[in-house]
Amino acid sequence: MDNTQPIIVKRVKKVAGGHHGGAWKIAFADFATAMMAFFLVMWLMSSATPEQKKLISGYFQDPIGFTESASPHVIDLGGTPTPSPDRTLNPELEPAQSEAQIDAQQAETFAEQIERERLELLLQELQNKVDENPELQKFKDQILFEITQDGLRIQIMDAENRPMFALGSAQLQPYFEDILLALVDTIAAVPNKISISGHTDAKPYSGRGDFGNWELSSGRANAARRTLVIGGYPEEQIARVVGYASSALFDRKDPFNPVNRRIDILVLTKKAQRSIEGEQSDAVEGAVPAEGAAPVVQEPLQAPQLRERLNIFEDGVLQFSQPGGR
């Protein structure tokens, strides 16, 4: 009998790295989903209003919505059906009058934001025009732009060796006319109305007892108005022309500083415009806000030549050359 038995050799084929199955993929997918949901919740919580958070809290406390603080809808986007009459919602959360007030406030805030952006763009455009225009660059130090709560203020100031007006009069110097005419198209590009004001330094006007810095500043403001209108600015867009004399100095430390003699053009916000129109409902446009001050005549001139039309008060009322009151 042959006792020889066959020898069986098993060869195990090893796979590099081993095999762990696909369970880890499912776990990782669950983890990624959970993280995405977490970040979505965090984003919603940061962007939700306090009223929406309260409604969400009420929904999870009572999904059926029978309690006073609950809501039948987690986030109401405006397309949900109206709750039935027997469902009493919290009057503090959804009063019609309160919603109307909130909507009006939001609309006004949005309008103010758009208006401010428009004025900022206008400021940048005016600044670019000054930087790019060789003629305006000569007077760059005399032109100041700034955003205020009432609008965009454009201040054109005197210099010691470059006054904007003839001494003691409202006759514009030719280069000041050129500055106004160069800026008028850009200012007219926005629908906002403007207010024009004239200012003098604190040096008293000498020459006539019934004529002083109040009349002089209002006359110069009106001369600037006439220049803008002749340059193409709509006259109906001018809300106010006023003279302040030396009551609103630019340099209060030095009342006689030439920069105090200036013309302000304020591109008004709607709120400031409403305030002015309310204050002047019964007043003459261009009146001087001072006791005893003379009103300024507003009719445009009709002379054939531009320079002649810009030289206002041709009857000699303001054509003085006395020192003081510059």
TrEMBL record:
Membrane topology: Single-pass membrane protein
TM regions (residue ranges): 26-45
Taxonomic superkingdom: Bacteria
Entry keyword annotation includes Metal-binding: no
Keywords per UniProt: Cell membrane, Membrane, Transmembrane, Transmembrane helix
GO cellular component, one term: plasma membrane
Location relative to the cell: Cell membrane
Presence of the UniProt keyword Metal-binding in the record: no
Pfam families in alphabetical order: MotB_plug, OmpA
Principal cellular location given in the protein's record: membrane
Matches recorded under InterPro entries: Bact_OuterMem_StrucFunc, MotB-like_N_dom, OmpA-like, OmpA-like_sf
PROSITE patterns per UniProt: OMPA_2 (PS51123)
Domain OmpA-like: 152-271
Family (UniProt): Belongs to the MotB family.
Protein name: Motility protein MotB
Protein source organism: Pseudomonas songnenensis
Classification of source organism: Bacteria, Pseudomonadati, Pseudomonadota, Gammaproteobacteria, Pseudomonadales
